[in-house]
Amino acid sequence: MPDRPVSVREHRAMRPYVALFYLWLAVSIVILVYRRVRPKADAGPEASPSSGVPSLADILPPPDLGPQPIGAVDVDVDHRSGPPPADAGDVAAPPASSVPLTRPDASLPRPGVPPAGRASLPELLGGIAMPADLAPLTHLGPASLDHLVLVTTTAPLDTVTRGLDEELTRLGYGVAWSGWGLGRATGPRGVVELAVHDGGAVSPEGTVRFPTAPPGSVVVELRPG
Asked: Model's pTM, two decimal places?
């Protein structure tokens, strides 16, 4: 049976589908051409298959050229990292490397350390048994090798003084007391200066010498002589 001719109404109804087909075909061709042309345009004249691999210059550190003389430094390279170069009439400061470095003088006294040649308290009092429950007085700063402050609340001042005299004598010292609780112990190890105070002792300036000492306590100071 012969085909039925397409009516005008059916022909008009197919026009949108035909237009969509040609539009899809044109877009597909444009995308295909763009994908083929773009890699060549982006690669540039120096692109190579191994362009993504780092070179030796990227891996190895820069060569060490060693210290450079000051005269070889171009002062015009970068002025952001320091002040501009001095004028011709200004006197240039010497480089930091030319400043002599000296070690501290070992003969100068250091805080908390006896001078050289003088025994420290641990050396002078090694083996002593502190009488009357004497213990370090806290809150007086860091420990020191040339000044020890002890405190007790279990014995009066005369008992503490007598106990220290007996212990120092046992260690080979001869103790001489000069009143006001001051003593000097001399022995083969060296000299120890002693001072026994009431815990509420007041300094010549009128301030309490040991504000952290408990009321009614006895305070002992020991120093190398």
From this structure: 0.49
